[in-house]
Design goal:
75% helix; two-stranded antiparallel ribbon; 13 helices; mainly alpha; two-stranded antiparallel sheet; globular; single chain; 304 residues
């Protein structure tokens, strides 16, 4: 006890803290400079360009809210928003339910649990582009017997994105849930068993409330990942099939928000300001949804 008190006093002494406080700006400055150059300045410049008409950043001309008006009136952008919301919500439920179920099973002292954890986590290590090509070949090989393709049917495209997204992320969320399940107190579980609680009651009233921090993290990650999905959508369907409107415009039926912004910005150099405005709206949307979700799940976590 005396040694522990001495070590704590040594760490908290002014002689130790003074050099740390003096050198703190030196260690912080490089990171802060990199943050400003790589994120903060491009972010602020992007907000400014969303109010401009431009083909390159050097010839930007201020036009006010015109880009935002065009973005909101774009039928393709609104369709992409609804489609992205459906994919994000569906994948959110499926990923978290299956990830929790797998994590719960692998913490039941089954044989080969560590091997199964590694196998389930492996898909998360595959890049989005490679993953899209792999699943594109799998789906097209399966659908060939029905004389169709994943890019010819919007229903197949929707469920293809769901399956691919779940296959990639379930293993990652499983690891977080396993960490939460391992923190459940054995004394609480034994007390519930002594009181006569069955497995379902123990799971619902003890295990799930205890792992609410893990549920909050997994819900946040799966929801934001679903909204930000880009590379898999680009490779797997590319937004196809097309929907031709009576006014002559074309809507990509499986196009998500990130891909819609990309196509708006790069397919037509005259609409880059509109694409930048869509990107700002996209940021506000994802940030608002993430904050609302965090507050909702965190409130339940505190109540428990």
């Amino acid at each position: 006890m005396k040694k522990q008190r001495r070590s704590e006093a040594a760490v908290n002494s002014r002689l130790i803290r003074r050099p740390i406080q003096r050198m703190f700006p030196i260690f912080l400055l490089p990171t802060f400079v990199c943050f400003c150059i790589g994120f903060l300045w491009p972010f602020l410049q992007g907000i400014y360009l969303s109010f401009c008409k431009f083909t390159i950043t050097s010839n930007a001309k201020w036009i006010g809210l015109g880009n935002y008006a065009k973005a909101i009136q774009d039928a393709g952008f609104m369709h992409a928003f609804g489609y992205t919301a459906m994919v994000a919500v569906s994948s959110l439920v499926i990923i978290n339910v299956l990830a929790f179920a797998v994590a719960y099973a692998l913490t039941r002292n089954i044989r080969g649990a560590n091997l199964f954890r590694g196998v389930f986590f492996l898909p998360n290590l595959i890049g989005g582009i490679v993953l899209g090509y792999i699943w594109s070949m799998i789906f097209d090989g399966f659908l060939q017997q029905y004389n169709t393709s994943i890019v010819l049917n919007s229903t197949y495209g929707y469920w293809g994105l769901i399956v691919m997204l779940c296959w990639q992320q379930i293993g990652y969320m499983m690891i977080i849930y396993i960490a939460g399940l391992q923190s459940v107190s054995e004394d609480m579980l034994e007390a519930a068993q002594i009181d006569g609680a069955n497995g379902w009651h123990t799971l619902w009233h003890i295990t799930i409330p205890t792992v609410m921090p893990s549920i909050t993290i997994c819900t946040f990650l799966s929801l934001t990942n679903g909204f930000k999905l880009f590379d898999q959508n680009l490779v797997l369907t590319g937004g196809q099939p097309f929907i031709f409107q009576p006014d002559g415009t074309t809507i990509r039926s499986t196009e998500m928000l990130a891909l819609n912004i990309y196509n708006t910005f790069y397919l037509n150099s005259k609409s880059r300001g509109v694409g930048q405005a869509k990107a700002v709206l996209f940021f506000i949307l994802v940030a608002a949804i993430a904050l609302i979700q965090l507050r909702a799940t965190h409130s339940k976590e505190v109540q428990q």
